[in-house]
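Dear colleague,

Thank you for sharing your sequence with our group. We've completed the structure prediction you requested, and as agreed, I am returning the results in plain text so they can be pasted directly into your records. Please verify that the sequence below matches your submission; if there's any discrepancy, let me know and we will rerun it promptly.
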Amino acid sequence: MDATTATVLVADDDRAIRESLERALQLEGYAVRTVADGVQALASVHSDPADLLILDVMMPGVDGLGVARVLRAENDRTPILMLTARVETPDRVAGLDAGADDYLAKPFELDELLARLRALLRRAAPGPEGTEEGPLRVGELSLDPRARRVWRGDREVELSKTEFDLLELLVRNAGIVLDHATIYDRIWGYDFGPDSKNLAVYISYLRRKLEDGGQPLIQTVRGVGYTLRPQG
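Please find the predicted structure tokens below.
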């Protein structure tokens, strides 16, 4: 799927942001719908599903986190990009906990937002028909690319799209150190630069979900990047 066929729903209570995003996305070829709050967002998705959602965290009534939680509880896996004025790690983690696939802090550059949308749409696209790849295993970690499910031993781990894609990249390159630029390019299709905390947040969140008091899996190679390499 690409911008010429994708429908994006923008939910933000700031009219100026809604209108500017609508114009910018339409120029890129997206079909765009806009709403001003979470209640309208849920009603819009229920009546006419979109291919991708852009949700502001802070909205009156039902906020962006609430919208994400409701949709994920309904097993709606539509990719969600969360917009937030809060840039601290706990606030970003709250968005991931709610089921968002990515987040972007305000104010943001339009090119970065467009890059993230493209990456989300690529990851949401169905894989080639006829592929019968089995689960990938590294130690006690098992990842099924077709079903997009992950287990640590007998425990299934729930991951968002971005978390799953990041873990799959690490699993397929187990034992190899991947630098930050490579990971950004493969997962987001855009290098956010050395000052970005985006990757570090996702790595820490993956660790929290995967390790749960168990043996560390994802290793940090300082000044370089990350590798999946169980210790011991």
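Summary note from our side: The radius of gyration is 18 Å.

Kind regards,
the structure core
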